[in-house]
Amino acid sequence: MGALAESYKDTLLEPQHIPLDYGSVHTLPDSHVWLDESNESPSGVHSTGPPLIDLADPDAERLIIQACETWGVFQLIGHGIPTKLMEAVQSEAEKLFDLPVDQKMKALRSPGGSQSGYGLPPISPFFEKLMWHEGYHIMGSPIDHAKLLWPNDYQGFCDTMVHYRSQLKALTEQLICIILKSLNINPEEVAWLKESQGLSIGLQLNCYPACPDPTRAMGIAPHTDTSLITILQQSKVSGLQVFKDGAGWVLVQPVLGAITVNLGDFFHILSNGVFTTVRHRVVATQVRRLSFAYFYAPPGDFIVSPVLSKDFGEVPRYQTLSVKEFVGIKGKHFEKALSVIQN
Ligand SMILES: O=C(O)CCC(=O)C(=O)O
Ligand SMILES: [Fe+2]
């Protein structure tokens, strides 16, 4: 099991953590009512969102580093992921979430077991209320769970997901090299990047069903990703918001063909807090929205130590610890994890 999944393994899947049969629910149940009592509003949904960067732009590397510092998120075009493949992922995921609930339940994630399969977002146990969401997580081979969903017809789904994952891996590693170089880390000397061993890679298919009362519901509650980097494909329906100091919640408007790249906790720690681990959430919507998140984290035994320099600060803001140790702290303290390891 990957380090990311491990952090949540003991907290998952109380019986109430099984997705609703959304097709048969016409009003918002009390279990799913979220009242925004935080002072994080007024929402800045009308502010300009994170930058759109073309990877083919000669200035792309500088723009990416700038976005890592200011936003921790950017949208990317010129990324080389074929449109046809992105569309195929969308249609395979639609096929999956369109299955009758009894069928999806056959691939339900099991408590304490593999984190692959169907269920609510892994962060659910940290909240009292339930999110308006159903998800399907793929770690390692997709075959065993896909066979449960489509005993005679699983190959197309598996081939698409495996192909997509391998394309995203190459792109993610290209972006990681750019960011590591800016931290004065030579990617050639990073063993896990060269050997691809022990990485924690997860592909999460998210579905936010059409919601009868979207302003009182929550798609995914605010969180930062326990990754180095996350690559997200949004569908045409908007819903993702990122929190920006001074502006509040800002919408990341989907751009046709673009993917959204966001930094997770590990780049924040490595950069001594200079790169932002972006806090984000998904609001519920009147029409169904799908998204696909590809999480990439180094192996569990990789030591994450803040880089010190004139640019990144000469005093470490965070303790040095392994990926696995941080994942354990996140699994316990969730949003407070970074302050727990602060010096
Ligand atoms: O649906 C989205 O746009 C974001 C999903 C997300 O934040 C996640 O899966 O961690
Ligand atoms: Fe996320």
User: What is the correct CATH architecture?
Assistant: Sandwich
Our count of domains comes out at 1
> Bound small molecules, which ones?
2-oxoglutaric acid, fe (ii) ion
N- to C-terminal separation?
Answer: 30 Å
Poorly predicted ranges: none
CATH names the topology as Jelly Rolls
What is the share of helical residues?
A: 25-40%
Major sheet attributes: 8 strands, mixed
How many helices in DSSP terms?
10
Oligomer: single chain
Which percent range describes the beta-strand content?
A: 15-25%
Which class of secondary structure composition applies to the elements?
alpha+beta
CATH class category label: Mainly Beta
Shape: globular
**Rounded radius of gyration (Å):** 19 Å
- Overall residue-averaged pLDDT value: 92
Give, in order, the helices and strands: HEHEHHEEHHHEEEEEEHEEEEHH
Secondary structure: elements and pairs:
Elements: H1 3-6, E1 52-54, H2 60-70, E2 73-77, H3 83-97, H4 101-105, E3 117-119, E4 134-138, H5 143-149, H6 155-182, H7 191-195, E5 200-208, E6 218-223, E7 229-234, E8 240-244, E9 248-251, E10 259-263, H8 265-270, E11 280-283, E12 289-297, E13 303-304, E14 321-322, H9 323-333, H10 337-340
Parallel strand pairs: 1-2
Antiparallel strand pairs: 2-10, 3-4, 4-5, 5-12, 6-11, 7-10, 7-12, 8-9, 8-11, 13-14
Helix pairs in contact: 3-6
